[in-house]
Amino acid sequence: xxxxxxxxxxxxxxxxxxxxxxxxxxxxxxxxxxxxxxxxxxxxxxxxxxxxxxxxxxxxxxxxxxxxxxxxxxxxxxxxxxxxxxxxxxxxxxxxxxxxxxxxxxxxxxxxxxxxxxxxxxxxxxxxxxxxxxxxxxxxxxxxxxxxxxxxxxxxxxxxxxxxxxxxxxxxxxxxxxxxxxxxxxxxxxxxxxxxxxxxxxxxxxxxxxxxxxxxxxxxxxxxxxxxxxxxxxxxxxxxxxxxxxxxxxxxxxxxxxxxxxxxxxxxxxxxxxxxxxxxxxxxxxxxxxxxxxxxxxxxxxxxxxxxxxxxxxxxxxxxxxxxxxxxxxxxxxxxxxxxxxxxxxxxxxxxxxxxxxxxxxxxxxxxxxxxxxxx
Length: 376
Prior knowledge:
mainly beta; 2 helices; 15-stranded parallel sheet; disordered N terminus
């Protein structure tokens, strides 16, 4: 009787045991949308080598991993019909969590990935992918290339991606309301704008990104009182058709602590390019190397090269600007205040090194950013 009871207990346990995660293999010519729809939480949809021509957006549910054998061999090409400017190649389902998109090469004639449904997302990971857009598409009034989201987003990771050859699209991402998020180790080449982060909460970073042949700016951030933001180790230089709004980083707004440290921003123009649109006075020029805010604000250890309009402009009072290496001089001055949410900002500048542009260092090599580089 004792053994019979033990046997029945084992059988009962097996009947209620959760199903094991599955790998769903997708080959060129398969029904990709159908296979993704069949995936359950915990499953991995694995794309074989080859090109997948897809004519409808893919919906990604919670707990699903989309993965290629590598970001150079599993290419998803989206040709979405019509002129619906809200179309994206992939849509992460509303309120989804624990979604990973990894090691894919994605090209779309519309947007790429959207997260704009439900009340919030958590733990979305987009890493080690190649992204290219065939043209700018309108979404919520803003031209967007790459990843876009307009609802709460906790734990978002956009890291080690390569955004490239999309000069007609406005930016790599527009993401609202991110907390505990990392926009790090991405590589940009031949794009209009690095990205826009709007009203982030605590513990958000945009760091160790590497960009050349950018038209507008490396990163634009609009902060709020809950924001704590880190911007460190970015390298941006060799801009295409730079103009009065071409900036290294613009990080502004009423916020908590902001650290902008150890970045490299060079107001250089890519070979074969020249200045773009002049300002209202007719002057062809760059914008700011660093536009900063924060309570407190720390701008230190940065290398700023060339003739920016200003090396550092602050919209907060007494921004701490120290131990930066300046090679060249600002058109309007090296360190200045500007109008901000709490009035006119100012800079407390100490121990900055001011040297001639002729002695400037060359840009550091890209060692870590992008999917093909060593991960840290």
